[in-house]
Amino acid sequence: MLVARNVTKNYSNLPVLKGVDISVSKGEIVTIVGSSGAGKSTLLHILGTLDAPSGGQIFINDVQTSTLQGRKLADFRNRHIGFIFQFHHLLPEFSALENVCIPGFIAGAKKSAVKERATFLLETLGLKERLEHRPGELSGGEQQRVAVARALINKPDVIMADEPTGNLDSRNARELHQLFLQLRDQFGQTFIIVTHNEELATMSDRQLVMKDGKIVS
What distances in angstroms separate CA 212 from CA 8, 37, 52, 57, 67, one per listed residue? Predict the structure, then answer.
């Protein structure tokens, strides 16, 4: 489903990624672990098309993403990749439902269908009573669940998560871990997750260990 071949990334004369190869199957939960500065987030951002590699090839469902530019790249990203970050990046002036709907509206889907799916996702994630609440009225765990629903709204091929539990207490982090497993089982959702959380890494189908810009195991 996702294949990366010999991906490199340099910032000026500093090599950050030094030839990374990854293959991820549909419905897999893969975690990327390693010490700070190993290149984990850089790799995730490149896999998610938020940054461009200095070299190498990345394919998502046989589409070579590095050949896409501008509006075509933005459209591909919106339709095929979901993102969850450590800090939820919800828009404070909008309700939970509206935040989840935004990527669907950007994709040009019918508004009634987007709202129906957003409502279904939020209810599935245990937020039935929070649809009209703004982010400031939600707990940290609830905000992260809204972010998960937003990532799912366009039925993406893969969700990229960068330290998704880094801003949560242990209970909410554990609940989010279970949620990822539920979404994999219920929807066949694929996840690539950068994390320092050992519990989350252990629960994944496969761990990739990064060191000095390379996958070492």
Answer: 12, 7, 19, 20, 27
Q: Which fold has domain 2-215?
A: Rossmann fold (3.40.50)
The encoded tokens of residue 97 equal 């439902």
H-only helix segments in the chain: 40-47, 70-80, 96-106, 111-124, 140-152, 170-187, 198-203
22 three-state secondary structure:
strand
Asked whether the beta carbons of 102 and 78 are under 8 A apart, the reply is no
Residues whose CB is less than 8 angstroms from the CB of residue 213 and which lie 6 or more positions away in sequence, other chains included: 9, 15, 16, 17, 18, 20, 38, 39
pLDDT in tens, 77-98: 988 999 988 777 899 999 999 9
pTM: 0.89
| DSSP β-bridge partners for residue 60 | 2, 63
Instruction: Lowest mean pLDDT of 1-15, 111-125, 164-178, name the range.
Output: 164-178
Look up tokens 């991820």; give the residue. Answer: 24
Which residues lie across from 4 on neighbouring strands? Answer: 22, 58
